[in-house]
Write a structure and sequence with these properties.
By secondary structure, the chain is mostly helical. Helices cover about 65% and strands about 0% of the residues. It has one domain. The N and C termini lie far apart (about 25 Å). One of its GO terms (molecular function) is DNA binding. This is YdaS antitoxin of YdaST toxin-antitoxin system.
Length: about 80
């Protein structure tokens, strides 16, 4: 993942309130601590979690962004 995208995800994490972090983590079926590792620390989530994060954020964070090796050919239709 390019450095600018990593920074963008890190900024998104920092902009979220603790309540928002809890809500997104719950919707994505993970913990806030693991969500932090993915967004702020650059850890690569599994395929299912990448999809869950996309759904939990309403598409703000796409699975293609988190796992381009798996979802690069997926066409996102709005």
């Amino acid at each position: 993942m390019p450095e600018t995208q990593k920074q963008s995800l890190k900024q998104l994490w920092k902009s979220m309130s603790p309540e928002q972090r809890e809500a997104v983590a719950a919707k994505a079926e993970t913990t806030p601590a693991y969500l932090r590792q993915v967004l702020a620390c650059g850890r690569r989530p599994g395929a299912a979690l990448a999809k869950n994060i996309e759904l939990a954020t309403g598409g703000e964070i796409s699975r293609q962004l988190l796992r381009p090796d798996l979802y690069a050919d997926l066409v996102h239709v709005a």
